[in-house]
Design a protein that fits this description.
Two copies of one chain form a homodimer.
Chain A lengths: L1 E2 L15 E7 L1 H5 L1 H12 L4 E6 L2 H10 L6 E2 L2 E2 L3 H25 L3 E5 L7 E5 L11 E6 L1 H9 L2 E5 L2 E3 L5 E3 L2 H12 L4 E8 L17 E3 H10 L6 H13 L4 E6 L11 E4 L1
Chain lengths: 274, 274
């Protein structure tokens, strides 16, 4: 992983560094207009610099079905052939992103919708074919922290869709959790960065059937233990891998929580610790 | 029409003002990959500040048909109900815009895809219903020239999709020719602005059957005469109305030409004069 600039003068000593909150919101939240409106209202109340990264997989699957494009997932990852690439460009880059930007503007945030191609902020490489050909799926190779910092310093609120480009003219479908983590990693040299993963549950649960079983603080060693004994599984594993990766690379705080908790960040959800 | 800032110190005297070229490309050009690639290559050779405004109506109509959404046009204007709004958000804001941005990046331009909602650059009002209800169609009310100038000065190349917002959370379908003209008008206070409308024909023709009958310089009085006697008709009329509007509001030069002439701007096409 390379970033666009050398170590910031703030690296290793972020006392006094400006605060940055990166919020990632997933599928169900961006699909329910009422839920989304509430989330964006809560997001608008976050002070300091902020970035929203959104998903939209369920909407993409629904649109693909309408267009007769078959959705194929392997290990929670979408196989992106040319037809599916067009679908995700339309749904993530157009429909979802622009509606969120317009709503943010209405809430007084100077939002700007971005994919990785815009201002070349996030470049990726088409995932090499090993056992599985994921098609037009991108693995992030660089984040232009300087360019994002210029936008943030101008008061803009980046709204990032889960799409990147390869620098040779090709757009690529990219995991939103990973994009949020890579953005947090790249900007942690300049900002005291909090990364918040918002999803349907109130945090990482000890018992998936019991919403009150939230793990308040999850140490990496416990994550590995819970992963081994099956307490934590499926989609939560790559999310936590991304989260610990960001924490390990200088992000100050990683919180996994429900979208409805965004208005009260100090009181709930799972915090990761090393 | 209001703009975001007062008169620029350069207003009325643009000697020494930086040059800006705004290129608008329409339907057929953005649909044929080979044609588009050539156009973007020519566009990349334009020196100084530049902005690309794209359409995409034919692609939107084709996608609407695939989705079972009926296309209704009145006087060349699309009736945009809620389903059609989703289609144009997807096609203009996602599919076309992001592919163009990625290709521009590959050609060495630091492109940034924008709708009117992004950074609030172009605000519109939902067209009032008089005889016809155009639905979610926007009439431009303001262009943030300062914000666009900041992007241009940073070396970015805005790629603008024909979509605006109303400031209250609603995206609106907006005519690309008009957006290009309004952008030219707003930026003419700061830049020596050339507006180029690229379409399928080599310029405004005296005889639509004869591509060699290009009018080299079209004065407003002649336009009105040709409009009256039917020499100029249909879709060319609103395009020329937009062009003369921009010329009248301070743009330096308006050229109507074929996309394939963009590489040799000094030699062909129709130039408007007042």
């Amino acid at each position: 992983m390379t970033h666009s600039s050398g170590p910031s003068p703030l690296s290793g000593d972020k006392r006094g560094a400006p605060k940055l909150t990166i919020v990632k919101v997933g599928g169900k939240v961006v699909e329910d207009p009422g839920y989304l409106q509430q989330l964006l209202t809560d997001f608008s109340c976050i002070e300091g610099n902020k970035i929203l990264v959104h998903g939209g997989g369920r909407s993409a699957t629904a649109m693909a079905e309408k267009l007769g494009v078959k959705t194929e997932m392997i290990g929670g990852r979408r196989i992106t052939n040319k037809e599916m690439l067009d679908v995700v460009l339309m749904v993530y880059g157009g429909l979802i992103n622009k509606n969120i930007v317009a709503q943010c503007q209405a809430l007084g945030m100077n939002a700007i919708g971005l994919t990785g191609a815009d201002l070349n902020i996030i470049k990726a490489v088409k995932r090499p074919v090993r056992d599985i050909d994921y098609g037009y799926a991108g693995d992030v190779v660089s984040v232009q922290d300087e360019q994002l910092a210029i936008l943030l310093e101008s008061g803009a609120v980046p709204v990032i869709a889960p799409l990147t480009h390869d620098g040779s003219g090709l757009m690529l479908n990219t995991n939103a959790d990973t994009m949020a983590a890579e953005t947090a990693k790249a900007l942690s040299g300049k900002y005291e960065t909090t990364l918040v993963y918002c999803f349907e549950k109130p945090g990482v649960l000890l018992n998936p059937e019991d919403d009150s079983s939230v793990i308040d603080t999850l140490a990496y060693s416990d994550f590995k233990k819970y992963q081994e004994d099956g307490t934590i599984n499926e989609g939560m594993i790559p999310k936590l891998d991304n989260g610990f990766d960001a924490l390990n690379s200088g992000a100050k705080e990683i919180i996994i929580t429900s979208a409805s908790s965004l208005g009260k960040l100090n009181v709930s959800g799972t915090r990761l610790s090393l």
